Amino acid sequence: MTFCLGVKVAKGIVAIADTRITSGSEVSSNKKVFVHQSQHHSLFIMTSGLRSVRDKAITYFKEVLEEQDTKFDKLYKAVNAFGDMVKRVAAEDKASLREAGLSFNLSAVIGGQLEKDDEHKLYMLYPEGNWIEVTEGSPFIIIGQPNYGKPILYRNLKYNTSLQEVLKLGFLAFDSTRVSANDVDFPIDVILCEKDSFKINEQRYEKADLEQISYQWNALLNASVQKLPTDWMEPIFSKSLEI
After folding, report:
1. What are residue 192's DSSP bridge partners?
2. DSSP 124-174
């Protein structure tokens, strides 16, 4: 599995992808983020699913960029083009994968800002090649392992949250997933795309870089639990005393 998180807030986009690759009993590490950018023209793609499908779709899409990049002046057009490449791979490989007992599986989070976009954009692409746009009402999307990281984002993330706070929350969402799922782990790749910068900044973090943050968060959680009031427990514990 995978943990890929994309968050769109008023000031920009933050995205986080783990690098753990699991194939049967074999575990390896590989980048799950593809970045393409030039002046006033930047996008990234994060993927979850079969590695072979991902690599083939990205390879086809790179060829499309070489031939047609100037035609993509809005991000949704590039998303459509990548969706077409996913459909192409499905047409070529879906049947043989099914015969081998594998499901055709590739989801993607695509974000950035192109020349004529009025703001930064974030999309989720489904294996069928169709997509949804991430909007203010629901500002984040997780593909791969979504369940463990959602609670902290639902509780704390708002559209006006600062990019620094978004990155904190995003890391804690990853960390919650990492400690709960064996197939998600460091290193992580972080993407930052500030509104109207038309630029993507990328940074890789190893476990040693963020281990102290994880320990501190765990200590703060434990301390907070200890501080919670206990008077609401009296009705049920008093029943034990009556026996």
Report:
1. 14, 201
2. EE-TTS-EEE-BTTB-EEEEES-TTTHHHHHHH--TT--HHHHHHHHHHHH
Mean pLDDT of 79-101: 97
pLDDT above 90: residue 24 = no
CA–CA distances in Å: residue 190 to residues 26, 36, 163, 186:
25, 15, 12, 11
Contact 202, 190 (CB under 8 A): yes
Which of 174, 195, 179 lies closest to 119, judged by CA? Answer: 195
Alpha-carbon distance of 54 to 105, in angstroms, equals 9
| Residue 21 one-letter amino acid | I
Give 105's contacts (C-beta < 8 A, 6+ positions apart): 49, 50, 53, 127
pLDDT digits (tens, 9 = 90+) for 133-175: 999 999 999 999 999 999 999 999 999 999 999 999 999 999 9
Mean pLDDT of 206-235: 96
**Rounded mean pLDDT of the chain?**
95
The helix or strand, by DSSP H or E, that contains position 221, with its residue range, turns out to be: helix 207-227
User: Is the Cβ–Cβ distance between 3 and 149 less than 8 Å?
Assistant: yes
Q: What is the pLDDT of residue 27?
A: 82
pLDDT band at 1 (very low <50, low <70, confident <90, very high): confident
